[in-house]
What we know:
Layout: H1 3-17, E1 19-21, H2 22-29, H3 33-45, E2 49-52, E3 55-58, H4 67-72, H5 75-87, E4 94-97, H6 101-109, E5 117-120, H7 123-129, E6 136-139, E7 143-144, E8 151-152, H8 154-160, E9 165-171, E10 174-175, E11 180-183, H9 186-197, E12 199-205, E13 217-221, E14 227-230, H10 236-244, E15 248-251
Parallel strand pairs: 4-5, 4-9, 5-6, 9-12, 12-14, 14-15
Antiparallel strand pairs: 1-3, 2-3, 7-8, 10-11, 11-13
Helix pairs in contact: 2-3, 5-6, 6-7, 8-9
Amino acid sequence: MSQVRRHELIIDFVNRRGFANIEQLTSHFMVTPQTIRRDLNQLANLGHVRRHHGGASSSSSTKNSDYSDRLSFNMEAKNRIAEKVARSIPNGASLFINIGTTTEAIARALLHHEELQIVTNNLHVAAILLPKKDFNVIIAGGQVRSRDGGIVGEQTSDFINQFKMDFGIIGISAIHEDGSLLDYDYREVRVAQSIIKNSSKLILSADNSKFDRTALARLGHISQADDLYTDQTPGQHTLDILTAHDVKLHIV
């Protein structure tokens, strides 16, 4: 395969998944890690991908990767994050859970809890929690996004604003180096902002692929979180922001 063709396929591979690591690319294209690193550096210099330690993410700020790809991507890290978050939630607590594959992993990790009160705008989260008869699960009203089961829109925000919960558990599409929390759908952003406003304690869950990524809609700022759960240490600039605003960092 020519280098030009491999570059085209690498761009497509990364765009469809949102993020790809060196090991995945090496295995898929059957080349050495050194070749993949060189390819990614060249593609990043041309603006076709965003280079990260250990891999690359999509350069698009307008479109998220497919739900099916996000569901399978980096699941080991997401499950570790989920188990750690779940351990911080006491039995009998009330909480919001928003849209995202990491928050869905957290919902699965919460199945060992008792007597939780949960409000969610994620149909997958509601389905995961359905077997727990001692849970009280409330689904927010609004428009259902067919691509991922998320419920969004003005109605959803109004519904969320009727509650005040102990915890808000949110995932995020991208975290800019200045601490901005970013997403692709402004309707989802408005709902997440309502969750932030109505949570006594805010828990942000994000695997390492979300850092230094970009998306078009500003949701908020990382300083609004009380706790950040992730699988790798963020860059120094992000660490400085967390320290300055007393956000507790949990590396799983």
